[in-house]
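Troubleshooting: if your tokenizer reports a length mismatch, compare your output against this known-good record of 95 residues.
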Amino acid sequence: MIAEISLLDVHVGFFLHLAEKVAGDFEEYGEIPIEGEVESASVFGSDGGGYLFALSSSGRVWRSATASPSGRFDLVAVGLRELLDGVTDQVREQL
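Known-good structure output:
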């Protein structure tokens, strides 16, 4: 089982948070409303610039447009697998 991912050298950094951090963020921010969408999402990761990644109940992955949970979130992947495949591609490009 993987508890967290910390890839400092991928792009500006990529982090999947520990379950405790995800739970703490949920407690602090609650569900993140996605502008123009019925669904909301929960923060589960970030990048080195402080931008947040959130996963919605549909499985889609969103990235904050600013380093804040209260701003706009943009769709970055149709699922977690697509996001992680993209990160894997970035790692391969750096080898």
